[in-house]
Amino acid sequence: MKFREDINALRAIAVIAVVIFHFNHSWLPGGFAGVDVFFVISGFLMTMIIIKGLDRETFSIIDFYKARVRRIIPALAFLCFVLMVLGYFLLSPIDYLNMGKHTTASLTFTSNFVYWKESNYFDASSIEKWLLHTWSLSVEWQFYLIYPVVLVVLKKFLNLKQLKLLLVAATILTLLLSIYVTFNTSRAAYFLLPTRAWQMLAGGLVFLYPIALGQKGKSFGLMSGLAMIVFSFFLFSAETPWPGYASLLPILGACLVLISNNGESVLVDNKICHLLGKWSYSIYLWHWPIIVAGFYFSLGDNWWVIGLPLSILLGALSFVFIESKTLADYGLNKGRYLLKPLPAASIIAVFGLVVFQTNGLLERLAEPERTLVASAIAAKDDWSYPDANKFMGPIKIRLISGKTDKNILILGASHTEQLYPYVKSLNSDYNVYFLTNGGCLATPSMKHPKWNCDNLQNYEFLLDSVKFEKIVTSFFSFDVYLSDIQTERQEQISVRTKEYDTFLARLKAASDDVYLILGEPKGEEFNPQTVIRNGLNDFITEEQARKNYTIHQKALGLFTELSDIKIIDPIEYLCNEGICRTSNTSQGFFYRDNNHMRPWYAVESLTYLEDIFLE
């Protein structure tokens, strides 16, 4: 195929959008859609290679895989190698073990599964993951593995027309799947191949159904397609359910550009697009670790001034010296088997696995640092709230069955879920119902950006269905997901205050004993990973703990329904003589992050709640 400047320009636009978005979401709130554009390009090119090869009866799956290895692995393996070497000297063990895990996942092209299980793409914790961006490479590689095999097999039984119609049907079905999954579990939709496949298949359809356009049509198609892509960068944001139907806009825009096949326009045929398009893969590889470095080493809000051009520079160097070269270019092709892409990547992947399995090569540390780090590692995934075991109408409940027909309801977000191990340990006579929804508040105006809060906000159904002797709720999530715009923020707080007052009145009407638990001590000094990384103190002052709840205290003063409600202040019980400890030498860290208790600490420290469950 003749070199297409329009495809190269698409790459340039896509990578710059992604890079700008990652450096500052507010500059280009939908810039992440650049990845979707990359998927369309991949689908178009892979379909062209495979179908042309099948038509000529020259297609080889092995040769196809070899070409993909040469294209993708050298630059990726070199990046992983550099990060693992630097990480040994610069990262804390807990960060290094994560880097080891993610290096192995990236080089085995399974990182999308790992990140799907770990967190949401837009979570704050994402900024700590040096290879998070490789999820898209894993999705593409999985497509590369499956797609040619499927086409080769189908071509044995179908003619080209039938094959094309089948791919149209597959595109539509996977699009519908993507829309459905996006609105039910957006994290899976974002990271997994089945919900991304339609984007690559859409690119393939452009090749399979070529449209001959005149010069005016080409110009219009190019302009319209580019406009749709660029518009999507500003229209959408991290709060948009993605990919779903919203991603149709950049996908159709990319398809229009490919259909137009117009490489002569100055919009795409210029030196900037030409160079950025050539360097796009390497720029994409290097930009994210540079962003993480800015966060990790606290290089300031203006790190982008250095980081953005540095991303382009390192991308260009990677293209010139790694991506566009072979071992033969350096005279290393003879007797240097271990330097070839697959062996080299395998060695780095195995080393990453060793680092992960040895907790960041923990044995290199001396005591007592080794013990403290081991505690931080253990704390990270220390959570014991089980899945629901009772379903009532629209809600899911975790029920601890007691010995009587008396019931207690605990409702709230994750800060009520952390009560579970303590309540379970009491072996109470009460049947204890946990009605929870992580990151949510019972007030209807509170909206979570990535999932609905219906399970908690449908609490009325449970109150109408079961008689509760006691009700326990938490006030912790009152200030979550407020607007950054001050006027909107104040309005949200005002609305939530009124709604929460109504919520308390409803609880009082449903039960004679209502308990409102205020917030526990919180802060980065409680976060094991941050403490290890930055050497923070093992305590905060009680004054500091209370300052974290300024918004809560103001709202509390405005409630009119607090009469007859028993208010429990955890800070009174968890802090001693003005000090709130975050760890001890015998058991390690008390929390798993900056605000959630570990199960053993919940069992040990929540004794101030005993009278609720054992009276």
UniProtKB/TrEMBL annotation:
Pfam families: Acyl_transf_3, SGNH. The keyword Cytoplasm does not apply. One of its GO terms (cellular component) is membrane. Coiled coil: none annotated. Residues 403-599 form the SGNH domain. GO terms for biological process: lipopolysaccharide biosynthetic process. It comes from the Bacteria. Residues 6-319 form the Acyltransferase domain. One of its GO terms (molecular function) is acyltransferase activity, transferring groups other than amino-acyl groups. The chain crosses the membrane at residues 7-25, 31-51, 72-91, 141-158, 165-183, 189-212, 219-236, 242-259, 279-297, 303-322, 342-362. Keywords: Acyltransferase, Membrane, Transferase, Transmembrane, Transmembrane helix. This is Acyltransferase 3. It comes from Paraglaciecola chathamensis S18K6. The lineage of its organism: Bacteria, Pseudomonadati, Pseudomonadota, Gammaproteobacteria, Alteromonadales.
